[in-house]
Amino acid sequence: MLNESEKNLELLKRGFSVDVGIVEVAKRNEEGKVVRNYYEVDFIANRGNNKFYIQSAFAMDTEEKQEQEKKSLMNIKDFFKKIIIVKDDIKRKRDETGIVTMSIYDFLFDEKSIDY
Description:
It is a single chain. The chain has 116 residues and is α/β, with parallel strands linked by helices. The protein has a single domain (4-109), classed as Trna Endonuclease, Chain: A, domain 1. It has helices at residues 4-13, 63-74, 104-109, and strands at residues 17-28, 34-47, 50-57, 81-86, 93-94, 100-103. The protein has a six-stranded mixed beta sheet. α2 (63-74) links the parallel β3 and β4 (81-86). 21% of the residues are buried.
């Protein structure tokens, strides 16, 4: 499995500029006070007019882990592509919210994998 730096280098090699992002979510608690939570997006890959939000997960074998990995992506309010890359050799899928989950192998061996 690639570490974060190696995935960053792979995206740079493909011509992307790469940033790390923070998503701020503000909600009111029971007392009516605003509580802010911050969620990290592992990679924001930009190339021309294209932007991709990418989370990297070793495994998503429980519902809690799936929810954790999707939380930052679900709180991004634009329409750019959102992707989770996992270690497991899985079939690429898109969920009902539009988030794509793919294997690290698809990501590495197909340079256009995040484009479609």
